[in-house]
Amino acid sequence: MKKTALLMVAFVLVLSACTSGKSDSGGAWHSPGTATAAFTVTPAENATDVPVSAEIALKDNAGSLTDVKLTGADGKAVDGDFRTDKSSWVPADPLKYSTSYTASVTAKDKAGKTGTSTTKFTTMARPGNRMETHLYMGDNATYGQAMPVVVEFKNGGVAKANRAAVERRMFVTSDPPQTGAWHWDSNIQAEYRPKDYWQPGTKLTVRLGLGGLPIGDGRYGAVDIDTKATIDTVRREIDVDNASKMLTAKQDGKVVKTFPVSLGRPAKPSFSGNMVIMERLDKTVFDSSTYGTPVNSPDGYRTDIQWAERLTWDGQFIHAAPWSVKDQGKRNVSHGCVNVSLDNGAWIYNWTKVGDPVVVRGTEKTLNIGNGFTAWQQSWDQFIQGSALQGGVAPSVSPS
Description:
Blueprint: E1 29-30, E2 36-37, E3 41-42, E4 47-50, E5 56-58, E6 63-72, E7 80-82, E8 88-91, E9 100-109, E10 114-123, E11 130-131, E12 133-135, E13 141-143, E14 149-153, H1 163-167, E15 170-175, E16 179-184, E17 189-194, E18 203-208, E19 214-216, E20 219-221, E21 225-231, E22 236-241, E23 246-251, E24 254-260, E25 271-276, E26 279-287, E27 302-310, E28 317-320, E29 338-340, H2 342-351, E30 357-361, E31 365-366, H3 380-384, E32 393-395
Parallel strand pairs: 4-10, 11-20, 13-21, 22-30, 25-31, 28-29
Antiparallel strand pairs: 1-2, 3-5, 5-8, 6-9, 7-8, 9-10, 12-14, 14-17, 15-18, 16-17, 16-32, 18-21, 19-20, 22-23, 23-24, 25-30, 26-27, 27-28
């Protein structure tokens, strides 16, 4: 599988040290006709138990790579490409467990001297303690302009001390290029977004290169995840105002429909904030016990629902609620959802896509970061502070 040059999110994760010989304390090679070019390649010569996420690099970023050829024990070439700053060469897929590899490396030091070396290493056996990962983005799917790249980490998630190593291996490329960054909402959720909403028609390529990656506490990433997606050419926006109890739908900046709503009553207020449609369900069942409230309690319910768009993990939706039509536009009576009529619910369901932005204003409670796709709940300056990498920002495009 041929990859384009990979997005550099920050510094390369150096795994070991040495160019030749069995010592990991140093080693350099000579370029014919020049002075010694003092490079040390990682993984080291004869290194064992190397993670299958290994990248071919120069120790301490001592220069820039110009050519890397990696072959397996069977002599077959391994596909891969450079990070954009040439700090490392990244295999297109995880290496095989318990397998020997040979890397032929050519590089240039900071003085412009060129050298070439070969290093051989062996990968580790398949570990038993592996972390599964879920990407909330379907392959070849089309999304609304606010769709973040959302990753959920299973099996205990990723501790703060280990987030930088994980973030370095999560690659996002956009066409056309748009500056973007990762933000960690918690140990179990990270989101990537551009500075502004995605441009119409943007093509996204995402690689979570976590297969075999050490993530701390003796755990390793389970598998790589790759996907391609598209941002719709139509820009849709939904604005819900508690003061007027009205929903306004805009398409490409122009109002296309307005209608009344009923939001969460004071005891169960809807959240104010910048949200994103997470999923769309033409039919579903709302069961309060899912969120810890017994069905037979005063606030309990189990109700058949039509035309629902999820806004939060804890169960706030836009959905049809024919039982509250008399209240819509006048008072708030829901358990936190945005209630609309059956006809308006069908219209908005058929009009929206996952990834469309929804702004709710003027309620008694503010949306918490991480309760849904909350990438737009913070300003850009606030968002990039949630990156585990120095500087936070990374351009989401790589040169060919």
